[in-house]
Structure formats: structure tokens, C-alpha cells
Amino acid sequence: MKLDSPITALKGIGSQTEKRMNRIGVYTVRDILLHYPKDYIRFPAPVTPSEVAAEGIFAVAGRVLSAPVLKRTNRMEIVQAKIGDREKSMDLVWFRAPYIKSKLKPGETYIFYGRTKAKGRFFHMEQPEIYTDAQYQAKMKTLQPVYAKTEGLSSQMIGKAIQTAFETLSLSYEYLPESIRKEEGLCEYNYALRQIHFPETMENLIVARRRLVFDEFFLFILQVQLQKEQKVKIPNDYPIQNETVVPYLLSHLPYELTKAQKKCLDEITDDMKKGTAMQRLVQGDVGSGKTIVAFLCMALMGENGHQSALMAPTEVLARQHYETFTNMCAEYSLDRKVILLTGSLTAREKRRAYEDMQMYPDAMIIGTQALIQEKALYSNLGLVVTDEQHRFGVRQREMFAGKGLHPHILVMSATPIPRTLAIIIYGDMDISVIDEVPSKRLPNKNCVVGTSYQATAYEFIRKEIQKGHQAYVICPLVEESEELDAENVTDYTKKLKEYYQGECSIGCLNGRMKPAEKNRVMESFAKNEIQLLVSTTVVEVGVDVPNATVMMIENAERFGLAQLHQLRGRVGRGAAQSYCIMVDHVQSRESKRRLSILNESNDGFFIAGEDLKLRGPGDFFGIRQSGDLEFLLADIYQDADVLKKAADDVKRLLAKDPELKEEENEMLLLMLKNSQANEMNL
Questions:
Q1: Measured between alpha carbons, how far is 308 from 404 in angstroms, rounded to an integer?
Q2: pLDDT tens digits, one per residue of 523-535
Q3: What's this model's pTM, rounded to 2 decimal places?
Q4: 313 pLDDT higher than 90
Q5: Which residue pairs from 512-519 have beta carbons closer than 8 angstroms and sit at least 24 positions apart in sequence?
């Protein structure tokens, strides 16, 4: 068996399981090994039934009070048992597990691990795992991986497949040059891969993760630098000679650009006049006005007879850009064809779009990744704009750019990355920063509260909806987890529907939905057909809804500061005052200190800098802290120190061996090619 063997090569994986694996992006044995845990369970200290005072995940130590009862219904077999301590008892139930009856002996004490649920004044547990005291003490010393799953595919099934892969494969290659590995004190690759999945200790996990994070940064920066070397002397095939349209548009806009917007626009225009093709990143905080800068640049290209294309991360956002650009062209009498190309268009609509792309050499073309498909051919593509760059891989950007002869590249990112890190990550680009927000925008009013404030928040949301506004509620999980104690969109949606009793339309959104369904929900929210949207972080790069005035974020302590700032940027886009309510479920001294930074500041770049200061090397449990780029493990904020070391090592490596021809770099070059091939297949 090889790493590139299909996932069905592993024992126990048939065609049905293969389909489920495909849904989480696993097609080969290599894919399953790179399907890293999203979290780890650290088993809690046991408590007695009388000490359970809330719903959550507990280890409950109790004596079995009487013989378990097995009940049979038409649908299933149910085992019921009762445990207790000197003060209180607790009911336990197992479904479709008749063997439990013979496993539990009356009078014996066991430890039951699982989720407690309230029923009136009492708590019970469903499907708890059963341990002896010795077994549980051993469990408390370990870390259990929790994997992203899908319907019909549990975390345990994924873990078993990964264990089978390790037992079957002989992983012996090491591609990182020995000199770099020793210099940085990095563990061996195979050791890291095993320990990231099945860590023996917390220390082993930290060591393994550091190696794999270093690899992700190192390969990414190496790829960027090699591409930079190839592009240094690319000629400008689309020079700017006429410059009347931008002054005309600026004089007709109903507002004046900020100084930062004007400076950014000047830098882009200067780039497009030079003898070489532009490669520029525009960093602008949420609501800083990047879209109008993109429109002005695309209008300038059209004035000079060249096409321009803007690729958005979602179909809803692409359609929104299309409508905005079309309306602006009509309002300002700009004779320019605006073309929309997305995957959901009918075959006839796509055919028409392809024809228009050939017919109009100065068109503005808006779309999604459909813009880089084989059938999308351009007649005169002079400028490529990618919106929210961190959602597209470097190779995808290259494919898009390759649609023109050598078009100018403009990347727009709303992620506030400190300049020191941006220079490293976007090493092949010049950087512009829009660090002002238009004066007409009211800053969000923020508050950090505990769970006792939830009912008050619901009433506040009700009042905002009654005013005609809309609201978001963000949860970290898609559905209830036996392993993780956090809010989920599935149950939360049901809870809010019961609370509001039909007063408003409530929608549910998560990343597991099919693209068409996600688009339908986001479009309904944009049209105010849905007033309250319960969602995971999939809305972080969503759609502009100026009417949304409230965002409530549950389990705010589980998110990084930069991501929380990105999320709350979904509100505050209209004229009305907007609010962000962050619910801290832990309320520890550390979580209060972190969240207070967001409570006191709306400056994304300041927050990103503070995020860097606060993150420690072992602080990586829970949700990925930022959505930047397509890293599997690495996070540019908490792993900033590793990022800088990787950048330094790449610089030294290329200074010594620019084309990676030396013998010790052979495996590295092969790994780089495999990495590029995998990204091309995404």
C-alpha cells in the first residue's frame, strides 16, 4: 500500500464509507493521515451524582444501586440503570446496547463518562462510556483525538481508519533537510504525524504540532519565494495610458474616499503604469471600503481597453458584487459590460457569459471559482482581483492569473494581519493598507457577558427585529458533540424557534450544507426573508447585509481575537447602530482578559497585534483561531514565532541552493511538487 492508494485500500472501508470519507475531503491514504484532529479530549476528574448541577460533559463516579433493566420495543433495545452516592441518585440509559445489562454489577462502583441532560430538577446520562476506577485513571493521563465528522462517519471511525493506516504503512521518509531540522530542534516527521493523532502526553503533542506547523509555513513560504523569483521581470502587457474615468467617478460618488483609500488607489495606479506587472495585496479592515477601490481600478482598466475580473469566495457575495457594479455603471453612465459567472448558472447562462467574455474586451467580470475553470476563456484579461485571498490557495491564484497573458494581480484581504507577518506571508507582493473606516460608519457597541445574560440578549434581539432589523447568532459547533461541551447550531436553532414562537423567520447555516443550500439561506437572509440567522463561522466570509444590527457569539472564549473581529464585521455595515454580544461560557481570568480587548477596541490591526502577544505555544485547543490561508494546523497569530523561523530558514536555504538541486534537498523538492499537485486538485 502507498500513500496515494485509494482510501478503500484500508481494511474495513467499503464503498459506503468511502463516499462518507469523500465528503470530508478524504480520498487517499495520505488524505486520512492529514485529516488532523480538530480538538482533543482531556478527561475531567470524576464527580459524584450529587455534585452534578448543570448539563455538560462529566465523569460521574457512582455505585450501581440495582440490577440494570433491559426493555425491548419494536424499534430497539433499551438498558436502564440507576447509580448513586450517599445523597443523590442518577438515571442512566443506553440504546441498542443490550450487552450493558451483563456488564454492570449491582453494588459495584464505576465511572460513567458522557453528557448529562436535565429532566426537571434531576439529571440523567445517555450512552455514557463505562470505566473502572483504574481504567479511568489511565484515561486521565491521555489525550483522545476528536475529528471533524459527517453523517454516518463518527470521530471514532475516523480514528480507527487512521490507526489502521499507521499499522499498514511503512512511513520512513523525511523530506526536511537535516541541517534545518537540527537547527530548529524539530522532531522527525513520522513521529510528529503519529503523535498529532495519538499523543502519549501533552508535551509530545506540542512537539509534534510544532514540527507540522513549521512544515506548513516552510513549504508555503518556499513556494511563494520560488514563484517570486520566476516573476520578478514579467513585463506589463496592459499599461495605463488614459486616466480620466477615476477622477470622473470620484467627483460623482456621494461620499469622499478616506485618505487611506486614496493612498491605496494611487499606489495601485502607479503599479499599473510601471514596466512590470503588478503584484499587490490590499489589507483593509472590515468596513474600510475595499470594494469601491476594486471597482475604480477595474473601471480604469476598462477605460484603457482591458478586461478585469474579480473572484469572490461565495456565490452570494459574487452576485452581490455583480449587482453593485452593474448599478454603479448605470448610475454614473459608465458604458461598461458587467458579466457574472458562477457555478449555479444554467448551461444557457454560462454559455452567454462565455460569449460575452469573448465579445467585450473591456468588460468587468465577476464570479467565483468558475472563473478559473477550463471553459472560462478571456479575450483581454489585464487585471485579476481576488476578494478574501485567504480562501484561495496560491496555486489557484496562479491558475486565475494564467487566464491572461500576464495580468496585474490585486489581492483584497479583510484579515488584519500585522505588517511584519504580512511581509513574510505575501513575500511575492507589495502591500497597501487601508487603516481607516469611512466616517459615516458607526462603530459597533460591544459587550462581553456570561451565560446568565442569554435571556436578556434574546429580548434585545427581539426589539431589534421588531424595528425591522436582522441578527446573527454564531455557535462553534454544527451539532451536539459527545466530546465537546459547546453550543451547536442545530439545537440552538430549535431553542430559538421555541423561544420566539414564530415571531420571526429563523434560518440555520453551517459549512456541511451543500453549496446550493448555503447560497439559498444566505440569499434569503440578504433579502430579509430570514430575520435571525443561526450559523457557524461560515458567515465570516459571507454576504453584505446592511440591515443586520446584532451579532451574538456563543462560546466566544473558544475563538481567537482576530476571528471574533472578523465575525462581528458582518454587522455595522448600514446606517443604524450595531451591536456585538460575546457570551463567555468559561469566564476565567484569562478569557475575561482576552475578550476585554475586543470589548474596548474596534481596530482590527490593534486586535491582531494583541492576539499575537496573548497566544502561547500550547494554547491550541478548540477552534482554529484564524481563517487565513489554507493551512491545516498552522495559525499565523498563535504560531507567529514559528512563521518567522520558517521564513528565515527558507531565505538561507535559497541563498545556498536557489533551485534545490543539492542532494539533501531532493526529498524537499519532491514534497513541494506533491503539495502543489494536491492544491491543484482541491
A1: 10
A2: 899 999 999 999 9
A3: 0.71
A4: no
A5: 512/150, 512/478, 515/315, 515/343, 515/344, 516/344, 518/314, 519/314, 519/315, 519/316, 519/344
